[in-house]
């Protein structure tokens, strides 16, 4: 199977800036979700494809934040049917600056996170940890190394006259972090959100910053398993 990177965003707000960074101009097409969770109408997840450096990228719009995990499942099913394998998920999005430590972040900065565990997820992880494929652990390490390279070398990037920076909200030295990134069974993921004001001021700035940060992470990644 050929390998692809799955880039999932929760709304059309983030779709435009992300799509503009793919080396291909294609109209979005849709996958339909006829699962019992949406009996009233099938949910449609719009996607387009492209490349960033040597990586094939599928950009999927989940329409709403609560559908992101389901979009990931549908994506895996559809691509497997096409003989393609997802190596990593990168979840884009937006968040409010007020949710972060004052003085450490600015509008347009990006926060990069690995999965956050509650008791239920921790119990689930303990059950599946031994079954996580070695290639997924390697892909998780490649993803973490790409983020580290970005953070180590970053000089910020200017959007609309504002200099924006990326920040990691996790400890890469945490024990077993590569396995913990694979709580979607066997598939590592990170989240990259651009920060805006509570009144959604600077929305375009934050969306563009998130997309640029994700693009730069993908550019740093080695060939995936």
From TrEMBL:
Recall the GO molecular function terms of this protein's record: catalytic activity
Which BP terms does GO give this entry? nucleoside metabolic process
- Top-level taxon of the source organism: Eukaryota
InterPro entries registered for this protein in UniProt: Nucleoside_phosphorylase_sf
Descriptive protein name = Nucleoside phosphorylase domain-containing protein
Q: Which organism is it from?
A: Trichoderma asperellum (strain ATCC 204424 / CBS 433.97 / NBRC 101777)
């Amino acid at each position: 199977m050929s390998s692809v990177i799955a880039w999932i965003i929760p709304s059309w707000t983030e779709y435009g800036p992300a799509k503009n960074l793919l080396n291909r101009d294609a109209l979005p097409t849709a996958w339909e979700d006829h699962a019992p969770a949406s009996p009233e109408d099938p949910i449609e997840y719009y996607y387009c494809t492209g490349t960033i450096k040597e990586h094939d990228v599928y950009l999927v719009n989940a329409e709403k934040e609560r559908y992101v995990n389901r979009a990931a499942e549908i994506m895996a099913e559809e691509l497997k049917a096409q003989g393609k394998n997802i190596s990593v998920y990168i979840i884009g999005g937006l968040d409010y600056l007020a949710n972060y430590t004052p003085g450490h972040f600015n509008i347009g900065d990006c926060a990069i996170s690995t999965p956050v565990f509650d008791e239920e997820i921790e119990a689930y992880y303990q059950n599946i940890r031994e079954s996580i494929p070695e290639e997924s652990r390697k892909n998780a390490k490649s993803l973490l190394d790409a983020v580290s390279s970005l953070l180590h070398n970053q000089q910020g990037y200017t959007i609309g006259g504002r200099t924006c920076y990326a920040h990691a909200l996790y400890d890469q030295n945490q024990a077993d972090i590569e396995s913990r990134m694979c709580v979607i069974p066997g598939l590592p993921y990170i989240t990259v959100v651009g920060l805006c004001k509570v009144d959604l001021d600077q929305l375009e700035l934050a969306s563009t910053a998130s997309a640029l940060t994700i693009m730069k992470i993908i550019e740093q990644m080695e060939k995936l398993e």
